[in-house]
Amino acid sequence: xxxxxxxxxxxxxxxxxxxxxxxxxxxxxxxxxxxxxxxxxxxxxxxxxxxxxxxxxxxxxxxxxxxxxxxxxxxxxxxxxxxxxxxxxxxxxxxxxxxxxxxxxxxxxxxxxxxxxxxxxxxxxxxxxxxxxxxxxxxxxxxxxxxxxxxxxxxxxxxxxxxxxxxxxxxxxxxxxxxxxxxxxxxxxxxxxxxxxxxxxxxxxxxxxxxxxxxxxxxxxxxxxxxxxxxxxxxxxxxxxxxxxxxxxxxxxxxxxxxxxxxxxxxxxxxxxxxxxxxxxxxxxxxxxxxxxxxxxxxxxxxxxxxxxxxxxxxxxxxxxxxxxxxxxxxxxxxxxxxxxxxxxxxxxxxxxxxxxxxxxxxxxxxxxxxxxxxxxxxxxxxxxxxxxxxxx
Length: 393
Prior knowledge:
The protein is an alpha/beta fold and 393 residues long. The protein has 15 helices and 15 strands.
């Protein structure tokens, strides 16, 4: 069987959706041929499966840059690039233009390579819209790992209609387990992130982390507005444990305030290593060497970071920093049984410090067998079989 994964940026280093697809590919490649389709903003690898469309980055900057700006700020941004603003504002960017590029390329690839099933890894959702409109014989599958119409940023009547139209054209749809109650249709199944990989990471002669320290690792994306490391910094600072060191692997987005930068400049210099974005294998090396992993929860209750299950797959202790009371990570970590949940909205008090210090002093490790027993439905093998079963329906 020939299976086409339709993704976003095909060459994006560390892209979580591509990583999930790679996990599935390893389980499918023995009996099926896997293809990827996406775009390359750098035009560095143009071929049938990796295409380019003009103006993307600037239009994308305008489209998302409008969010949260004042009326005057929006006007200034639009006037700075009038033609590109036209594309970004008048339902062309992200809705019509890009999905049209996807539609045409999906049709071309499916015909040329005799694709049996095309799978939209719909984050962002224009991949699903392009697939829904494509005139192909291949079965159309949508794997919506993150919410679209029910996403707090995109939620409106137009996205609801687009999602309904895409779902109506699909042979089968997978939605996050958290969202399954919203989709009672017979052809909708729940899916977990297929990142429960418990294989040993090869040992290297030169470690990435200082093994004389107790290494606390955050591996993911930080944002100045929705996922800040401030609570983690304060917790480590107030614990007054000289052996603790924080390593942050991943992108940092948004501008942190001058006050924040000034407040933590000395602390970061002494206690924090900012690595930046790395490839999947290097990220796994960091995770394997860390003593304690950190999850900073989302600010909404219907989105689960994929790193929750990546943390669980390690067997290591996980510091779960929840930003809301009903954080969707809580059931997963409660089932895991090797985590400490603290809430970032409250001031750190002596009880929090005591809990954290005891957690640091412990050395619990969850066995591979226990992890796989508890989270079997999040293994790539399980999700890959879900996909094949859906295609064969």
